[in-house]
Amino acid sequence: MAFWKPGTVAPGSLVDREAEKDSEAAIVTFSDAKYSTMTMSEQRKQLPVYKHRTEILYLLENYQVVVLVGQTGSGKTTQIPQYLHESGWTAGGRVVACTQPRRVAATTVAQRVAEEMHVNLGMEVGYTIRFEDCTDPGGKTRIKYMTDGMLFREALMDPLLSQYSVIMLDEAHERTLYTDILMGVLKKILKKRPDLRIIVSSATLDAEAFAAFFSTNRDPKDKSKDNTAILSVQGRMYPVDVHYLAEPTSNYIETAIQTVFDIHTKEPAGDILVFMTGRDEIEEVVSEIRERATTLPPNKYAEILALPIYAGLPTEEQMLVFEPVEKGARKVVVATNVAEASVTIPGIGFVIDSGFVKIRAYNPQTGMESLTTTTISQASADQRSGRAGRIRNGKAYRLYTRESFEQEMRPASVPEIQRSNLAGMVLQLKALGIENVLRFDFMTSPPAEMMSKALELLYSLKALDNYGRLTIPFGMRLAEFPLDPMLGKILLDSQAFGCSQEMLTIAAMVSVQNIFVNATSPAAEEQHRRFGVLEGDHITLLNVYAAFITRGKKSSKWCANHLINFKAMSRALSIRSHLERYLVKTLGLTGPSQLPSCLGADGSRVNDPNEATVKIRKCLVSGYFAQAAKIAPDGTHWISALEARPKGARALSYSPTKLWMHPTSILFKQTPQWVIFHEVVETGKGKAYMREVSAIEPEWLGELAPHFYVLNKQL
DNA sequence: TGAATCCAT
């Protein structure tokens, strides 16, 4: 059976593919080098998805949207794009895209597929992630792995995504912000491009919902009008025995530790993975296990090795969890949610699940994000348990009752789009020509209040006009910038302030996390202070960066000496150079040398330093004016400047806000009267901490944002 | 006066 691909003149034929197989098999006998060729192709056929190859291709002929329910280990991500390529979907210069929620996934999967196809990565098979385009500039790339956010951005350049014949939205059940928006955008594109095909790869739970979202069939009785189909593919997973607590625990940390020792003393070999919510808990569990392990009779039980893993941990320490332990010893990895989907630790036979996770949620009333410990969803619980069944039969110990799982946990987590700051996304939708964003077809709509808040901010940044239309050229330029709108505005305005070089550095530095290694230690604080200035964190970061490229010669040794995270600095360097390229292009300049600086090229202050820091901080105010605060009378905290706005000019939904200086800020022990800040994080204890803070003069708010702080005498 | 789930552009 041959398949016809809409819009193609050269359908692939099974004859060709049979010939390929023959030649491969024939060559095998000649050399060991080619032997690996056969094993790779044999390996491909062993994957569960291979059995569904014909069916997948058939469905794609007949349905615009195929929802693929595929469990872990089915091989869908690496194989389906290859099947499409082999059967002609990439003929005529067209491309098959496969989106991933994470950068690492996009790069590693592309690497693997390039190996399977015996091509160089970046040619027939490539990937695109932010700031890294590993595809063929000559247009030879046929299979493209990319982050979901990148595909969304590509729609800005080409609203019909015309080069793609098939787009596979992988891991759609994770419901990331960009996957969700892409679904709405693709639904619109499908109306104009009947030749386009979409594969939505999802977990069992929401397959019907995805299909219903894309369905254009208004007549459920007439199946011939269906444009969507659902297909299930088995995974390669071993069964996992799930155990619940008989009674709820009041202390899951202690219960987790006890369960570790129960497993260790009663169960056969196999490493243990423990899910906790954050660094503090992880360190506590790890040190308790280490301590109690010393009391076990050494000749009776194997050695037990407890290791932490979380995103903020330095890379070298993270790597330890992937190393095999000595024979006979048992590894206990205590992890945050990184181990649920982002990181796979080999050799896990047992999972202990606290049932909790920290999630970030945006509060439109205060414009702040909070970080709170929440009960996980049933889908998360199953995903966590599944981590025990990757090598052989496993066991999962859930530190909650079956009743709690069935009655208290929601089936799936709240989609990201319902708990995010939507300003950047709304701006990009406007740039895509979607004027009425409130009526955009979302798979799950965000709360109306979050949309209003986003529109209000964009209006105050002058990216939207009185009618809610994108302003030209400013709003359009801002939308094209791959940054948060407030940060984007300071870069676009930096030319007028004469400090573009400095703002590029600052924007890059606030975009990476954990510049200081182990920032809470006294030694790290001391190093931090060496770069510190009273103007605040932004200029301190500028000093760190300048020292890194001049005195530090971009070396890892210098970083180690100053307790600075080398990986973070390298990333900042790369982000900066990309932002620089964008800024040069957006401003219509010929090269980076045309971008003004208020300091010397090497970061030393050749001009009046005071004048320079004023320029930089004023420029920050031009983008961050909505995030300003004034010190409280008792000097212990700050009050959001929104409080100082006249009633009529206050945010639609406004509540007065106390803000605290984050202990990692260089201004922690200082009392600047007025500040602006990059972000606020509200912790579980209900305290809102400002991060990346700079001292400002209140007059600047009136001068640079008169439309925002209307006639305010209090400033 | 004291603190960091995790991604993405």
From TrEMBL:
Limits of the Helicase ATP-binding domain: 57-223
CDD domains xrefs: DEXHc_DHX35, SF2_C_RHA
GO cellular component: catalytic step 2 spliceosome
Span of domain Helicase C-terminal: 256-433
Catalytic activity: ATP + H2O = ADP + phosphate + H(+)
Presence of the UniProt keyword ATP-binding in the record: yes
Enzyme Commission number, as recorded: 3.6.4.13
Gene Ontology molecular function: ATP binding; hydrolase activity; RNA binding; RNA helicase activity
Record key words, sorted: ATP-binding, Helicase, Hydrolase, Nucleotide-binding
Domain of life of the source: Eukaryota
Family per record: Belongs to the DEAD box helicase family. DEAH subfamily.
Protein name: RNA helicase
Source organism of this protein record: Linnemannia elongata AG-77
